[in-house]
Amino acid sequence: RRHTRLQGDWSSDVCSSDLVDVALLVPAAAKVYEVADFLRRVGRKLVRDVVLFEAYRGANVPAGQKSLNFTVTLGAEDRTLSDADEAKFIEKVREQAAEIGAELRG
User: On the CB side of 62, how many CA atoms lie within 13 Å of its CA?
Assistant: First the structure.
């Protein structure tokens, strides 16, 4: 799911942000702040904010794991982000998720 949020004073330059939903399957003992820090680290300068909107255990989640679902705000000071920027972020999350014992869902 992708959203665009416009920020700034409408009388000056407007800087856009992309909201990207990221769902990660993590060990049940994983701390939300550690997973959020992982997303910030992966996105480096493009990550403006990371907000947990759902923690889920139940149907379709293996025993000993939970699904943590975040909205990540991506943005840049100097340019408008492209679909390629979002895709690169998601691919980095997918490639590096094992570092924290996680798996990208979806």
Answer: 9
Torsion-angle region of 43 (φ positive above 0: left; ψ -120 to 50: alpha; else: beta):
alpha
State which H helix or E strand residue 23 sits in: strand 15-27
CA dihedral 24, 68, 40, 80 (to 10 degrees): 80
pLDDT (tens digit per residue) in 28-41? 999 999 999 999 99
For 70, 82, 90, the CA distances from 50, given in Å and listed in that order, are 7, 19, 14
pLDDT in tens, 53-65: 999 999 999 999 9
The residue to which tokens 């993590």 are assigned: 26
